[in-house]
């Protein structure tokens, strides 16, 4: 892939945490002619095979309708989770748009996000309050969806339990997972942040 194509790709990824900066430096190296396909340019090696693409769950432009049927970020979600989100979106009515800001992610995309978060927050401990490891992430399993905009999150926080959709982390008002029992029992208590979730830390 040429540097020009990489730059175009970078410009299409504003929604991914720090991706533009990371890709920018990578593309710059390509422009200088020092990068070769399959090389190990970055210290972490996460870009050794090229930047994450739509096939890794990247959503060009940052968001896409929950009814999209083409992007792996949407189509590789757990079918039951996606069906619940779409049912809720229809129930919310035409005045509240539901979009996916992040859905299914490949391990490669998750690792990039974790590395970017470590760079942003200064430590792995702090970063893991916001971004799970590829092994643990519910996004990588296809069992979590980040919904926007705020009006949709607000609607789901009030009505989502009826569809089995629950906010899991108090610090992530956009992150929803399927909890079928919520339909009759309500949503479980939230974790303060992902670092308190035994699925991610245990
Ligand atoms: Zn999430």
What are the key terms here?
202 residues; alpha+beta; 2 domains; five-stranded antiparallel beta sheet; signal; D-alanyl-D-alanine carboxypeptidase-like core domain-containing protein
Describe this structure in a few short sentences.
The protein has 202 residues and is an alpha+beta fold.
Structure description:
The protein is of the alpha+beta class and 202 residues long. It has two domains: 1-51, no CATH class; 52-201, Muramoyl-pentapeptide Carboxypeptidase, domain 2 (2-Layer Sandwich), CATH 3.30.1380. 38% of the residues lie in helices and 8% in strands. The chain contains nine helices and five strands; from the N terminus they run ααβααβααβαββαα. Strands 1-2-3-5-4 form a five-stranded antiparallel beta sheet. A hairpin with a 7-residue loop joins strand 4 and strand 5 (175-178). It starts with a helix and ends with a helix. The structure holds zinc ion. The site of zinc ion has 6 residues, from loops.
Q: CATH first level of the largest domain: which class? A: Alpha Beta
Distance between the termini: 40 Å
* Cα radius of gyration in angstroms: 18 Å
Overall mean confidence score, pLDDT: 82
> What number of domains?
2
Write the layout of secondary structure elements.
Elements lengths: L2 H9 L7 H13 L32 E2 L6 H4 L3 H14 L6 E4 L4 H15 L2 H4 L17 E4 L1 H10 L5 E3 L7 E4 L3 H4 L12 H4 L1
Helix pairs in contact: 1-2
The structure holds zinc ion (ZN).
Zinc ion binds next to loops.
